[in-house]
Structures are given as C-alpha cells and as structure tokens.
Records
---
Amino acid sequence: PMRFVDVSHAIEDGMPGFRMKNADGTLTEYTAHVRPFLTHEQSRPFYQGKAEFEITDLALQTSVGTYIDSPYHRHRAKRDIGQIALDEVILPGVVIDVRGRAAWDAVDVTAHDLSGKAVLFNFGWDQHWATEAYYGYPFLSRAALHFLIGAGVRLVGVDTINIDSSR
C-alpha cells in the first residue's frame, strides 16, 4: 500500500535557519519570525467589544525548515516554486540510511535503482535540530550528486541544513 510521510517542521518563532558569512567574517543568521500582527485586545474595539480575533504575522526565508528549492533558486531563467506541479514532488521514494556520519563528512552513493524516484538521505541529523551542531553537517559529495543526476532521480532530500557543503 502507498504511504505518505510528512517530513515538514512546524514553523515556530526563532526556529533554526541558515547562516551567511558577511564580507567582514561575521555571520548573519536567518530564521522564522512569528508574532501577533493584530491581537485579540487590539481587535475588540472594531466590534464594540462583542468579538475579537488575532491575525498572526509570519516572516521567513524560503530556506528555513523543510523546503523545496526550485531551479530558479540557482538559475534566474528557470522555473520558480509556483511553477512546480505537485505530481513532480509527490513521488515513489527511497530512503538511504547514512546515519553515523560526522559534521563535514562527504557522502557518496552508488548502486541503487533510483530512476524517477524521490531519494531521501537519512543522516539522523534531526537529533541536532535547534542546537549549534545543526550548522556543521554531513553532505552529499560532488560524485554523489553526479550519480543522482545520471540515475534520473526526480527529487533529493536530506535532513541537514543543506545538501552540499557550505564551507
């Protein structure tokens, strides 16, 4: 029987995001911001004190939590996320267990029938969610990425902050 697996994260204020190194060597950290836009108390006067509601303000970058990069992310002339149909990302999948790797280990992959599939790499990195260790992660080697492309993989997922090295 077909089974769907939800790999998303709840969006929370201050959840882990990504970091970018500035020209001066300092880091800028990106995250989600969740806060009231209009509180219950602020809305009551609009309804003569007989009703109230809250509207939440949500701001985040597209690279926070579980997300899908579109080709546009790297190539401005390619498709953006709104142009990707659901049947392109809801696919038969394969999980490749690569747990036990250390931060900054490059991982290779070969010898799997992966054509047309979603391939998810389980590094076990969820154990580092919301800790400093989350930002030093194992990644797929250049050879692994070439193998996946050549194998006809339709989608690749990892449980780390990025699929390749940010070093």
---
Amino acid sequence: QCDPDNFANACIPKLASGFNFLKSYKVNDGGSGKVEYSYVFTKGTQYMINLCANGAATDGIVVTLFDSGRNQVATSKINGQFISAIAYPCNATGIYYIQYTFDGSSNKCGGSALGFKR
C-alpha cells in the first residue's frame, strides 16, 4: 500500500528553481520510527531537501539534518509547524545525516529529494 518510489519521483520536479537534483529518498517506516540516510555535503554549496507525502504537505513527516558530529543543523518542523522543504548552506565539507521521523503521523510513507546549487 505504500509506494515511496512514487512520492520520491514526485518530489524531484518540486525542488526550488535553480537547484539541481542529486538523489531521491524513500521514506517508509519499517517500524523503527525513523528512516536515516547519509550524504557527503560540500562546503560552499547550498542544499535543499523536500518532502512529498499523501494529502497534506508533509503529513507529519519531519526531515532533520545533522552534521558529522550529529549536531542538528536544520529541521522541517519549526514552532510546531511542518514545512515541506529545508534549505541548508553548507559551511563544512563532511558526512551529513538526513533523518526522517513521523511526528504524530499515521502515514509513515513518503518520498524526498535532495538538490544542490553552487
């Protein structure tokens, strides 16, 4: 019943203007309550991560970005509001962790796309 490929593909054209597509991610909770991926970000590059899910913009799916030291650097839940994309200007090259969690969401299925611009 969950088709994260569909959502991930739908997210690609929704990247903001000027951002080039890098990678899409399946967001499908297998029962752990979170889904995590890693990606090497490069200093001087701006990244955007967007979310696509059924119905409402993000349907309670939250994307949080952590740096190589596991410090949170960006999140799509701000003051209790869910936004469908985060932009992050990278100032240190390294491995970043992209974590998806399900904040009160009954829907644990979606997709996401990562884009960049220099």
